[in-house]
Amino acid sequence: MLRSEDVGRLGCIANGWPYVVPVTYVNDGGSVYAHTGEGLKLRAMRENPRVCLEVEQMRSEANWRTVVVRGRFEELSSEENDRALALLTTRLTRTEMSETARLLQREDIVQREGIRRPVLFRIRVEEKTGRFELI
Q1: 3-state SS class at 109
Q2: Helices and strands per DSSP (H, E), number in the chain
Q3: I need a labelling partner for 82 at 20 to 30 A (CA). Which of 17, 33, 35, 49 fits?
Q4: Is the entire prediction scored with pTM above 0.85?
Q5: Which domain, by its residues, includes 85?
Q6: Looking at the DSSP assignment, which residues form a beta bridge with residue 52?
């Protein structure tokens, strides 16, 4: 299920409170890769790298599946960016990309307009749980 979906809800602790936001992601079997711009989410994960990702498939109230992944946020080094970028752009080109995702592919815009490049990160999976109801 983690490989078939594109959007999950990332949970972290920001300013002492739970903070949950949607993110596009890709899963390679051992880690979940995503991207973000500078902001609250990134500051929160840098301060406390323990995060979770919830992914769901809702067909109806009686037909659904959900997975929760718990793990550690790791900001990728420049050496690791290429592999993560390839995984993400392959996955994200199937759907309409967000402005932040487009910047992952457009180095010319980043350099010309002085925009900060999105930060690539992974969640190193430590635990997965799931639930479902199928009728």
Answers
A1: helix
A2: 4, 6
A3: 49
A4: no
A5: 7-133
A6: 11, 70
